[in-house]
């Protein structure tokens, strides 16, 4: 993923586990999107996403895209959860009157 994004001249911040992802997302840098591996060690991507979205931080409203380095039944369940979360996020954005962001 990092190579694909770099080819599009996009900067990436890569972390090794969910705890680092949480610390990074709760820092000062505002990201346009967060790609979250659902199977990260220490704190999994599902829990890391919940923590980022449920606390006041610079990336609370940043879209988080669920990803996995493997394919199995657990991944399917986590993807279903991610889709539900994305729908809730979109509904919250619509209720708040937030203008849609233009993607590059």
From TrEMBL:
One of its GO terms (biological process) is phosphorelay signal transduction system. Residues 1-104 form the Response regulatory domain. Keywords: Phosphoprotein. Pfam families: Response_reg (PF00072). The modification 4-aspartylphosphate is found at residue 37. This is Response regulatory domain-containing protein.
């Amino acid at each position: 993923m990092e190579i694909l994004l770099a080819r599009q001249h996009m900067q990436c911040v890569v972390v090794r586990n969910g705890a680092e992802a949480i610390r990074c997302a709760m820092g000062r840098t505002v990201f346009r999107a967060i790609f979250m591996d659902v199977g990260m060690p220490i704190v999994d991507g599902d829990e890391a996403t919940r923590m980022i979205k449920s606390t006041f931080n610079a990336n609370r409203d940043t879209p988080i895209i669920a990803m996995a380095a493997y394919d199995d039944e657990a991944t399917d369940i986590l993807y279903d959860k991610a889709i539900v979360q994305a729908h809730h996020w979109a509904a919250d954005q619509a209720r708040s009157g937030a203008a849609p962001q233009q993607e590059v």
